[in-house]
Amino acid sequence: MNILVTGGAGFIGSNLCRLLLEEHPEDQVSVLDALTYAGNLSTIEDLETNERFRFHQGRIEDGAAVRRVLKDDHIEALINCAAETHNDRSLLEAGDFLATNVMGVYELLEVVREMKIPKLVHVSTDEVYGSTATGAFTEESPLKPNTPYSASKAAGDLLCRAYFVSYETPVVVTRGGNTYGPYQYPEKLISFFATRLVEDKKVPVYGEGEQVREWIHVRDHASGIDAALRKGESGQIYNVSDKNERVNKEIVQILLARLGKGDELVKKIPDPRKGAHDMRYSMASEKLRSLGWAPQVPFEEGLGDAIDWYAHHQNWWRPIVAKPEFQAFIKRFYGPGLGEDL
Fold first, then answer.
1. Which of 13, 160, 265, 318 could join 81 via S-S bond, C-beta 3.0 to 4.6 A?
2. Which of 61, 84, 88, 126 does the annotation list as catalytic?
């Protein structure tokens, strides 16, 4: 199968490309990526020598660029991993999120409809459901996003539904939990904290760190997307969840212990998201599991491996955190007492 992965130079997209090339020797994998702040060619450097892999630079909002790649590479399926994804950034720069996560999805749907591409998988997030104190969200749960990021993703999901209902566009939506693993831009909890702790810099814990998240290794998330591509039914939504619930402060203690650091590097700060910070996410994934998918990476093993990866691949992330843009965001969002020790 000839597959285009949009956003393939990012975290989930690059790991998905590796899985497709490793697990399906008949696949040809193309990437279209805008190479914004969270995407860079060093993330896919190991793939560039693979004769079954092609890279194209461009934005999903550019319908003409998408059409060229689909035509030139004879694409049979499109997986959309392109997105602005960081909640904290969305509170400062919501316009970027609407451009990519809403208008970009619209452009992809239009191109897929026009060119009659057989399958589109749109990769979304558990955050579209909002927060829940008990139980687990199913694919039928109402959408209650609480940040500009999650609202933009929910809008993209609803566009996918509308195009399936209105035009029978062959689109499937996946919603993944909090994902961790190698090559994650160092702004999310595990990658951000691991890289800062390696440098003996403080890490910010919102309030008492009581927020609960469900974690899934990026390899398992990628295999869930792959299952939805090959076995999912058009018009359907599939939650990709490993049912690994952890309190944030527990994750912090695991990071400290693994890297041999002390509590003096933990800085509790007022939650900058306030009411927009969801306290707990949890999803049921029986629907995807009915397709034969199951997560394979135990959480403790996967988290330990991820922490070690950041400790041993400083040549990948140090150029990122040294960029003025990255440092400016840390100082702007977290303020004095954290940004000052960069």
1. 13
2. 126
Q: Is 126 a catalytic residue?
A: yes
Give catalytic status of residue 73 as yes or no. no
Which value, to the nearest 10 degrees, does the dihedral of the CA atoms of residues 263, 265, 266, 269 take?
A: 150
Mean pLDDT of successive 10-residue stretches along the chain, which has 342 residues: 98 99 98 94 97 98 98 99 92 94 98 98 97 94 96 99 99 98 97 97 92 96 99 99 94 98 93 72 96 97 98 98 92 69 46
Q: How far is CA 203 from CA 11, 248, 337, in A?
A: 21, 12, 10
Of the candidates 149, 183, 206, 334, the residue annotated as catalytic is 149
How many Å apart are CA 198 and CA 185, to the nearest integer?
15
CATH of the domain at 111: 3.40.50.720
Total domain count, the chain: 1
pLDDT for position 342? 39
Task: Say which of 33, 88, 127, 157 is annotated catalytic.
Answer: 127
DSSP at 276? G
Per the domain annotation, does 21 fall within a domain? yes
User: What's the domain range around 140?
Assistant: 2-180+215-240
DSSP conformational letter for 143: P
Annotated active-site residue 127? The verdict is yes
